[in-house]
Write a structure and sequence with these properties.
CATH architecture of the largest domain: 3-Layer(aba) Sandwich
CATH class of the largest domain: Alpha Beta
Order of helices and strands: HEEEHEHEHEEH
Number of helices: 5
Low-confidence stretches: 9-36
Largest sheet: 5 strands, mixed
Mean pLDDT: 82
CATH topology of the largest domain: Glutaredoxin
Number of strands: 7
Distance between the termini: 63 Å
Helix content: 25-40%
Shape: globular
Strand order of the largest sheet: 5-4-3-6-7
Number of domains: 2
Structural class: alpha/beta
Amino acid sequence: MTKKHLWLAVLLIVLSVLLVPAIMLGTQVFQSRDNASVYGLQVPHLDGVSFQWTDTSLQQHAFPASKPMFSYMFMGFLSCSEICPIRIKQLHQLEAAIATDPMLASKAIQFLFITIDPENDTPTIRKAVIDDQSPRFVSATLQEDQLLSLSNQLSENIQSHSATNNHVGNLYLIAPNGKIDRVYTAKHLSTDKMLAELKQYMDASGNK
């Protein structure tokens, strides 16, 4: 190897040593910026949800509905003293923000509360606490087999004939076709970030 070739080889090695970390750093910065826009959990492994539900007027409905709409879905019970009051407050905050947002106010977005305690969460109580609060709010009961099937699919830990009404209390953002796009756990309590994520998702879905 000539002296010229030796120096060229050294130069290439030095450039490689310097460039690889720079490329890795750039990739990490790009990924961190991309991930910063994602607030809720993405769950591509979950299938879309589909079920029949009953409203406070005892009318039957299918989910997802024939009318395309985005849904925030929450499973819980109204006498819950832990995550449920926090979730219901979140729904109120989100609905108020959506109602005054120029981009979202005219969009078909609903908030679906599914009771896991239909014996105590009667239609009258649900109507007063949930449905009457906004035209976007609806409360539902499911047949027990469908409720448990949905719970198993979403890992909500709802148990048949349980005296404690155990449940996880996640909030789900669901696309018009029933696909679960985001899951918000008990750690995801920022309505501002949820609203920003909804706008971003609707933009990406072509629902501007």
